[in-house]
Amino acid sequence: MRTRFAIATLACALMTSPASAQTPPRPFSVASADGTMINGQADLPERRTRAAVVFVAGTGLFDRDARFGVSGTPRDLVFADLAQRITARGVAAVRYDRRGVRHGAAPAEMLDVSVSGTSTVETQRDDLAAVYNWTRARDGLNVRCIVLFGHSEGLLHISRLAASGAPAPTAVIGLGGLLESPLSIVRWQAAERDHDSLLMMDVDGDGRVTNAEVEANWRRTPSSFVNTPAPFIQPDGEWSPEEVAMVATFQRQSYEASRTQVLAASGDGVFPNEQTPMARYSWWQSWFVDDVSAASQLAHWRVPMTFHYGTTDSQTPYARQRAAAGDLFGDRATFVVHEGRGHSLGEHALLGPMDEALADRIADEAAAACD
């Protein structure tokens, strides 16, 4: 297993922005296993290609563009931006809408609530399978080299596809991808993230975290995704070692109470609510009971894999994902860690847009997989 550390601000030579796709996108609509139609598009390069990257989004009501940024520019459409770079390199980019999400619709009209709430652990795998099969099929895109690209929970969907016995792709690329289990990552997010962030702010290692240390270092921690240091500012000027430990104790208790409440509900309801249903409630419950690691499922495929993580990732910290992978991938996997970058490899701990040099790097990797 190889691990490379990359300083994003020094990554590669600067590259110019890619041109947009030279041919119109090819729309598609395919039936998932339960008959639900999954809509998307294949962005095509100027010349005919037998290679494609299939994009798989993480948690959220994402359409094929995957709007997940804070810049107020088109680059906030993380998948659309990366797709441009990939087609500029002669590879098709296949993107699809989450079931029940209408592409390009106004916010008030983006959801078909009769469909969006039907999403489950199984249907998310099956929806991906339908798109994957179309990409491979003679009467679909009919390509022979496919790279599956998963952001965050998207890598979990890919891993479940692998465990289902689906044919292996040519390669897998993960961006802030989940490799540990759903159970362990939600427990960390709810009960351990703030404690770990406090320890990261204790730069002198004396066990105490002063307000000065908080102010100087909070942006370098996973908890910076809340965009303010206020929760960590102490009235008396510092956190004692005992107070730091109490954060973990209190949040573990809160997590256990929430877990009990979530698992007591019916899995047949919708999450998070009837107005904006994203999934069946059983999907949300799975994050409190599923202790099967994504890495163990993804290991069914013996293909090259590259996993990118930022050091300030608020959702899937590198060290935890690397530990979950262990030796499961042998020498087939490369882990790349980007200093000062977050879950989407941008400056923010959670959101994009992605650092431009890193977006170009990932596009290069995807194209190289099909050389």
Structure summary:
The protein has twelve helices and 13 strands. It is α/β, with parallel strands linked by helices.
Report what the structure shows:
- The protein is built from 12 helices and 13 strands.
- The longest helix has 24 residues, at 241-264.
- A hairpin with a 7-residue loop joins strand 10 (270-271) and strand 11.
- The chain is α/β, with parallel strands linked by helices.
- The chain folds into 2 domains: 2-181 and 292-369, Alpha/Beta hydrolase fold, catalytic domain (Rossmann fold, 3-Layer(aba) Sandwich), CATH 3.40.50; 195-270, no CATH class.
- Strands 1-13-12-7-6-4-5-3-2 form a 9-stranded mixed β-sheet, with helices on both faces.
- Helix 6 packs antiparallel against helix 8 (241-264).
- The model is unreliable at 2-21 (pLDDT under 50).
- It has helices spanning 78-87, 113-116, 121-136, 153-163, 182-191, 193-201, 211-217, 241-264, 281-286, 294-298, 318-325, 356-369; strands at 2-7, 26-31, 37-43, 51-56, 92-96, 145-151, 171-175, 209-210, 238-239, 270-271, 279-280, 305-310, 333-339.
